[in-house]
Specification:
By secondary structure, this protein is α/β, with parallel strands linked by helices. It folds into two domains: 16-251, Aspartate Aminotransferase, domain 2 (3-Layer(aba) Sandwich), CATH 3.40.640; 253-356, Aspartate Aminotransferase, domain 1 (Alpha-Beta Complex), CATH 3.90.1150. Helix content is 35%, strand content 17%. It is globular and about 65 Å long.
Length: 357
């Protein structure tokens, strides 16, 4: 198979051992004689996978008993509506740090009063707002911890006077999280914890049931808590691969160990961006994401963008084109992206520099 370095923003690189196990399970799942995509979700073999996956989430993130872990469909985009449906009674505040935060806010506005407490739209979302105050009369405050398009990240758990809700689609399991500080954490799996098709939710049980509106059955988190994430047929294959991915995280030493590696990978790439005169980073240095590294050609070298893209692709770099809304380059270096791939990209940038200086 052709050797490539996968920097796709999602779906993205997954641990090879998780991929290999998935291939085996597509042939014969746990000796059932059936592929995992054909077994009953009510079977004992499948129930064991669900139980193990939920237990791994709780273990790896030290999730307290006050919170429940759910596996749903619809991605974080449906999660935007789930959040407003379950938590918005009178007024909600959002930290507007990018496209996905704006989309989350839009869904909330459709159900009640919701607004941006602070925003970094003034400079195309290249920083995380600071110095803002969170009003104490909010039903909840919503943040998007990592912004894949712009390469910014909130890397600490903020203190919040109201229920805190976070879309952690692209940085969950990449760093330790104090789950007790959040009323709800949710996101699509297709960055760090599995393939597309399953959405994770970590919700504090006593935070639910506070709104007076009717919540459609499928949009009520309590429905899925009561049903053990199997009120309807769950996305079995995506959950299976998620479970194998979490096993890999545990084998790597857990989230603390993964975080250390992630910081090292990001430091390696940012150091080259800052050193190399042909490139420059686009996110504020203090807010740089360790998941999505965004950069452009430096002033005077803009004409080399397409040439570098071709140069990099010829050397096996996949998925480094920036989001269509901002252009430039983006290297997504999620958990399963190996340091060898980051080093290969750095070497590629150095080689290109040597040819053009």
């Amino acid at each position: 198979m052709k050797k490539v370095h996968n920097f796709n923003a999602g779906p993205c690189a997954l641990p090879q051992q998780a991929v290999d196990k998935a291939i085996e399970a597509l042939k014969d799942f746990e000796g059932t004689g059936m592929p995992v995509i054909c077994v009953s979700h009510r079977s004992k073999e499948w129930s064991a996978v669900m139980d193990e996956c939920r237990a791994l989430w709780k273990e790896l993130l030290n999730i307290p008993d006050t919170h429940e872990v759910l596996f749903l469909g619809g991605g974080a985009s449906l999660g935007f509506l789930y959040v407003a449906m379950n938590f918005l009674e009178k007024k909600a505040g959002y930290l507007e740090t990018g496209v996905w935060a704006k989309k989350a806010l839009k869904e909330a506005k459709g159900l009640g009063e919701a607004y941006a407490v602070a925003s970094s739209a003034d400079t195309t979302f290249n920083y995380i707002p600071k110095g803002y105050e969170i009003p104490a009369d909010l039903d909840y405050f919503h943040i998007t911890t990592n912004n894949t398009i712009y390469g910014t990240e909130i890397q600490t758990d903020i203190d919040c006077p109201v229920p805190l809700i976070a879309d952690m689609s692209s940085d969950i399991m990449s760093r330790p999280v104090d789950v007790s500080k959040y009323a709800c954490i949710y996101g699509g799996a297709q960055k760090n914890v599995g393939p597309a098709g399953v959405t994770f939710v970590i919700v504090r049980k006593d935070a639910l049931g506070k709104v007076s509106r009717y919540i459609p059955t499928m949009l009520d988190y309590r429905t899925h808590i009561d049903g053990g994430s199997m009120f309807n047929t769950p996305p079995v294959f995506s959950i299976y691969v998620m479970n194998e991915t979490l096993k890999w995280v545990k084998e790597m030493g857990g989230v603390e160990a993964i975080h250390k590696i992630n910081k090292e990978k990001a430091a390696l790439l940012y150091a080259e961006i800052d050193r190399n005169p042909l490139f420059k980073g686009t996110a504020a240095v203090e807010d740089r994401s360790i998941m999505n590294v965004c950069f452009v050609m430096a002033e005077g070298y803009e004409h080399l963008q397409d040439e570098f893209m071709t140069f990099a692709k010829e050397r096996g770099m996949v998925g480094i084109k920036g989001h269509r809304s901002v252009g430039g380059f983006r290297a997504s270096i999620y958990n399963a992206c190996p340091v060898e791939s980051v080093q290969a990209l750095v070497d590629c940038m150095k080689e290109f520099e040597a040819l053009k200086k």
